[in-house]
Amino acid sequence: MQNIIKVISTEFLKSKKTFAWWLVILGAGFMPAFVSFVFLSKWKHLVPQQGHNPWEDFTEMSSKGLGFLYMPFFVVLLTCLFLNIEHKNNTWKHVFTLPVSKNYVYFSKLTALLLFIIMFYILYIPIWIGCGFMVGLIKPELQLTTYVPDYLLLLSICFHSFIASLGIVAIHFWLSLRFKNMIIPISIAVLCGIIWVALYQGRSEQINYFPYSYNYSTVSPPNWITLKMFGIFPQHELFSILYFIIFSILSHRYFMRSFKS
Amino acid sequence: MTLIETQNLDFSFNKGEAVLKGINLNVKEGSIYGFLGPNGSGKTTTIRLLLGLLPSKKDKIKLFGQNLQADRISIFSKIGSLIEQPSLYEHLSGFDNLEITRRIRNASKNRIDKVLQLVDLKPASQRKVREYSLGMKQRLGLAIALITEPELVILDEPVNGLDPNGIIEIRELLLKLNKENGITIFLSSHLLSEIEKIVTHVGVLSKGEMVFQGRYNDLKELQNNSATIHIETSDNQKSLDMLARKYPSTFSENSHIGLRYQNKEQIATICRILVESSIDVYRMQVVDKDLENIFLEITKN
Ligand SMILES: Nc1ncnc2c1ncn2[C@@H]1O[C@H](COP(=O)(O)OP(=O)(O)OP(=O)(O)O)[C@@H](O)[C@H]1O
Ligand SMILES: [Mg+2]
Hints:
The complex is a heterodimer of chains A (about 260) and B (about 300). Chain A is an all-alpha fold. Helix content of chain A is about 75%, strand content about 0%. Chain A has one domain (about 1-255). Chain A has helices at about 1-15, 20-40, 45, 55-90, 90-95, 100-140, 150-180, 185-200, 215-220, 235-255, and strands at about 230, 235. Chain A has a two-stranded antiparallel ribbon with strand order 1-2. Chain B is α/β, with parallel strands linked by helices and about 300 residues long. Chain B folds into two domains: about 1-215, Rossmann fold (3-Layer(aba) Sandwich), CATH 3.40.50.300; about 225-300, Alpha-Beta Plaits. In chain B, strand 2 and strand 3 (about 20-25) form a beta hairpin. The structure holds adenosine-5'-triphosphate (ATP) and magnesium ion.
């Protein structure tokens, strides 16, 4: 146990000064900054009605933006960059001659990647709150300082967004192991992003089976499908977990058996 | 004790021609073993197999008397290695590169300072590896291999691409590690001259086959004896007289004379001597050609 924590800690050390860190920081700041900009420039349309909490609009706009941008760009790029540290430096051969089992190497990589994504949310939450209050201070008419955001809702959005991302995390973890050239997984993601838009526009029933749609479905469930809930999870989030399990098994087998250093 | 032992080790890349054919390595504790062979002979492939980076059949490879597949982790905790270009995180400093391996290998913190001093990289340790010269990278790779005081180091072409000074530095370092710390060293090279000054044992690989394995002195002996050319002329007796003056090793045998082969220039000289004495040369042949060619390959400059 102590050992695996050590191995994971080296994953963070390896990522030091890489673009992956910037991606997490910039990614977490981008959407709140963008929504703040919209609020400040279009504030006249956004002055709340009597008794309406303006944070609801602030939340909706940012979480939709998050679901839209975050899915194809952030998760995919982060996963690629993360595995690319090893590909690019040709260091797998060194990693495999260290006295740790390949299982450890695999799990520490995947865990570190998930921790990175969690770090995104940890940064996102305070930046988002900070941005909202700042907009409130600059434009008191928006009444963002009069009201408080629904913190529980914010946490719930982040949690579900994370669950909804798991599917593509595992798919792209697998792809990035298989294809050392980053262009291939990224092209696949772009293509799948286009397919998602088509499914959405066509109001397709199949959208629930398509993992690249889950992030957006979580913040804005497609209204042409009746939302099936299983406990706290909507159906597509369960599928996301399922995709995560299946593709993690695939990539683990690939890593243990045929991965070439 | 035998630290590296392979039994009839074969290897071929997917369905291709065999790259290694029945290799029987035997590296004894305390030795500096030079693994020699021309480009493409299979040195890196062998080393990759030894380190489990390529799949091998069960029971073919034993390190420290243990089975590679069965005791991988215990074996690797005693080995430091460097394969082809060093594996370094270029965006990190030399220090951070050492720290990564130190943490995983559980070495004490002060080892970093020790190995940095050993390879003379202390002043550059905070600089990014991207800014290192090839020689510095090579030395950092070596420092990483030495972080836990291994019992055995496996180095693939550690002096490749270094200037003469760099080569001498690494050689001296390896010699010191062997003498003072008792570390067994297995290193590959495609040039005998790069490593002949330090090796105690050599294995010579050619097209995937071991053509020689033993003490370095035995190699030299064999080299001298095996390098013979046979010359058949219109007047063998006269040729013998002429050549024996310049080359005392000349002898006569059946239909030809023979002498010890030293280099290409010597052949030209022999031709000139014979032609100038109006002797017709019918045949000039290097005997035991394979081994000879290999020696030429690994001894050329
Ligand atoms: N990944 C690979 N796929 C197919 N063939 C390969 C691969 N790697 C090496 N080979 C072949 O295996 C043979 C041995 O290569 P190897 O790299 O082991 O030689 P080497 O002795 O290390 O040479 P060098 O001195 O150039 O480093 C060569 O013929 C090479 O073409
Ligand atoms: Mg090689």
